[in-house]
Predict the structure.
Amino acid sequence: MEIKSNSKITGLGAYLPEKILNNHDFESMVETNDEWIVRRTGVRERHISAKNEYASDMAIKAVENLIEKYNVRVDDVDMIIVTTFTPDHLSPTVSAMVQGHFGINGTGTMDLNSGCTGFVYGLCVADSLITSGRSNKVLVIASETISKVVDYSDRNTCILFGDAAAASLIERQENKGNFLVSGFSTDGKLGDNVSCSNFSDNIYGRLVGKNRIFQQVGKFVYEYVIKNVPNGIRNLLKKANMTLDDINWFVPHSANLRMVEALCEKLNFSINKTLVSNEFFGNTSSVSIPLAIWKALCDLKIKAGDTLLLYGFGGGLTHGGLVITW
Ligand SMILES: CC(C)(COP(=O)(O)OP(=O)(O)OC[C@H]1O[C@@H](n2cnc3c(N)ncnc32)[C@H](O)[C@@H]1OP(=O)(O)O)[C@@H](O)C(=O)NCCC(=O)NCCS
């Protein structure tokens, strides 16, 4: 049974690195072309972090954008959660580096890695901390520098990804929370289909190959998502006695626009009520969902009171979602 939430998202900022790679830029790197990339993925451009620009730098810029846009304070947050699978270091964490930069006293910090589902987890942890009474104000930041682990000789992978960061503020609003329901699922035994190794050279005995390089079995992931995510969504909505008719905006992980279209078709849900971020930003892993919301807010698409279904999927393999009102 879901407990009535006491937390509300009160602001959302974002940061995109300056450098842009368009599809034509890939034509000199691998055997591909703009027409194939647009037709199979929907991506036209993606932003790429500078050589010395890391997840913590981008997270800080996203928080600065949040502060500027909403005129809010972050010096009184009591938890900073950063979702990332591309942290600057294993230690210190990105969240601790954000704390250090802003000099926020008396706050907890944690990095959370659940691949592309990460931001949905981050929001759920923030809501749980606030609703249980343990926190009052939480920053949930997604920041990814995927370009630093992409193999630019692998045409199956490199064309998809981009770098970005997004920062959200979650605050206590007693009995007026906007988190309605959440649900998660993991298939760890399938993990080697989306991998980026660290210390170990194998996953369940299967060699990973290139160290610290993102690798995926794209076709398998595509089929896994189309097979499992619709049921995940139906189960999530059932828990809240809701149907897709109650949803104003579907915000799936922007892995690949064709995948999103296939999901909408399977769910019989209008693509026009779907928010994505991959056309001009690529697949930005855990940032893709907040980035799609940020863009829709800039475009004045989302209205106060709208119901949003956020659904992430990817590394783990994990998938999971969250329904919120705005
Ligand atoms: C990776 C992905 C874009 C490939 O698209 P696809 O439509 O499934 O393409 P396929 O893998 O069936 O490949 C079709 C052909 O295009 C080729 N191809 C792959 N990438 C190419 C590219 N960038 N340019 C041109 N051709 C390409 C393949 O080699 C293959 O050629 P072949 O038929 O001669 O073997 C797609 O599967 C995908 O997005 N998967 C999910 C990714 C994902 O969610 N990852 C998890 C992290 S969130």
Observations:
- The pocket of coenzyme A is lined by residues 32, 36-37, 40-41, 116, 155-156, 159-160, 194, 216, 218-219, 221-222, 255-256, 283, 314 (CB under 6 Å).
- The chain has a mean pLDDT of 96.
- The CA atoms of residues 69 and 318 lie 32 Å apart.
- The longest helix spans residues 218-239.
